[in-house]
User: What shape does this take?
Amino acid sequence: MPTLDEAGVLREAVRSQGPLVQNITNYVAMTLSANVLLAAGASPAMVHAEEEVTDFVAIASALVVNIGTLSPSWVSAMVMAAEAAGKAGKPWVLDPVGCGATPYRTETARRLAALKPTIIRGNASEIIALAGASGAAPKGVDSATSADAAVGPARLLSRETGAVVAITGEVDFVVDATRIAAIEGGDELMPVSTGVGCALSGLTAAYAAISPDPFAAAVAALAVYAAAGSIAARGAGGPGDIPARLCNALYRLDAEGLRSNATIRLA
Assistant: This one.
């Protein structure tokens, strides 16, 4: 099971190596996703045009595919980029935003999941819907389901796709076919600040670019984000303060800050 010390080692490796993360993400999340990656020491690129996505995959360290804002041309670009990443052996993260909310969104998420993402990161409702299980209760792109309810479907999804599955909520879980880790930290203000979850997918991709173990990468990224979120919420006047304070916390986070503001445990 990855430890906080190991997460800290990966945090420093991201800072020293500066992986280039290609983001095909939604309009709402672009700025925060880029700022989170910069604050963590990675290099963001928001590249989604069909004419250049595969060329950019060739030079990127990792890819994020976030389905928050969909259109036929974007879906085509997502598929092209995911296929290129698979062929090149580049890690890529699928963020199935709002999966289960509409048939088009669910079909798109499942089509992309079939292309073997390295990591799938979503809230409980999204993961349950993507796994094809009943009982998910999406509320637009938000979740009305607790993260622990998605652990079983996440394990099925991991076995089906080969991906590590990260479920975010009040307690986060990282699941593969044989392991389950729980990550605690963060703050209740984070889910009510737009784009915070989407930006985490970018950070997860940066860690996946550095670590040969996607499970360890996902655990480390979620732990670092949880610690930064906990720090960011202290003294915040409300959710509007979170984006800037989160980036500041990521930029300044050290080993003691990580140990004091997040926990990783076997689940």
